[in-house]
Structure prediction request, 498 residues.
Amino acid sequence: MIMQSGPFSDDRRDHTSRHANNDRIDAGKRDATDVDPLRAAELSLVDALLSSLSESTGGQRERRIDNVMAAIDVSSRRQRITARTIRSVTVIAVAAGLLLAVSLFWIHTGRKSLADEVLFAVHQATTQPIDRVYTIHRILPASTGSQLPHGTLYLRGQKGFVVTWSDVVLGRWEDQFWLVSERQRVTLADDFFWIDTDSVTDRLGIEILQELSLQSKHVSLVQLASVAGLMQHDYDVSLNAETLNGLPVDLLVGHLRSQSKTLPRTIRLWASVDTHVVYRTELRWEPDNAICLELLPEQSVSMDWYQFADHCDAEPIVHRISSP
Amino acid sequence: MPDARKLFEALVREHADMLVAYLTAALGNVPEVDDLFQEAMIVAWRRLDDYDQTRPFSAWLRGIARNLLLAHSRRQSRQPHIPLVLDHLENHLDRLNRQKGDSWQEKLEVLQDCVGRLPGHYRDVVHQKYFHQQALVQVSETLSISVDATKKRLQRARSMILDCLKVKLNLGEA
Prediction:
């Protein structure tokens, strides 16, 4: 892994693996020495543009495009197989009548692994419009030296969430995402992906929440329905019987199938054996980089709690962001 | 779905070089560029329904890449000037994108022109390095100068190309 020459560079990293490019890297680094970051970035851009002139005839560009399209095909194929399966089952069921439909349903559920069945039930439970409150604990690499206070996550099914962390509050209700960084400042967007949290970059807890939403508003990892849905599609899931605080629970362990750097490598869900309510969630990117959610005693909040107005002054400065 | 895929592949082809240039300018020539390139394109594919077709696809794609870069930088060294740097790069690429030409390569004619305007010995070093894809040692042997002198010449050439681009793209001083 190399991190050199660009404005985000880290010269401490090893640079032996890309020998052929070292000259350019070295040259770029020299350009960037003793100049301001903007000039360094501009010089890096010139280097990149010149490189793109020469690379256009090479295989590197085609390889990148092929990799992207292959990744997209894998994802689309999975969706097509699911859709085709559903279509086939429907046609046969109509033709053969109710009895056959019941049989197919039985065969279908019979074939599903127990882990998939439990995950399906957990997913159903997470979509219920019932308020659930979790503490958020962020585990960071020891090298960062950061000790973060716990945050609190309020969840209402798939429609709404509120996260409070230090003096920052962010949330969602349906298609409106909002961030209240101070009592009088509000940022609104139609997708959390576009909310720029730079004003709160010193609050690592908030940063990671933005990272969690990188994939899409439909895969916002602070919403457990999205986590369970993601596990169904992108993770190899196994089921273990465990106890948590003396209660028997289902522990679902998901291992990421792809090489995505954005998604957690492993996801663990501890859920009630009876109600399938999630008691604990662990999203782990690296051994020392994770987020844990722990269910708090039942409490309900008003609908207004999921709107930004409940968390700021009467007339805040509202900054609206549209998708570019 | 096949039509959507075909259309998206055309978009990937059209914007691949621009995106790689943006990521490389931000990160350097590192393996993470490939990772983030793929990640950005996959996010774009998944979010294609959100794309407002009345606006430039390149800017939308850079918006996605920007968020991935910010997340990446947070996971790495976290430098406070990164948003400013990305704004700067996006502005430059936006100007480049407005150049005449249907393809990215055609838009880069302005760059070719700047290379052409370099004094001979600077132009030679750029040609050997980038167009003939020679390593620094090879370039220095070809031009019969030391490796250090080659590096300095390349550094100076890039600086002159940048100044030329700023004039041609009407970018003003940084």
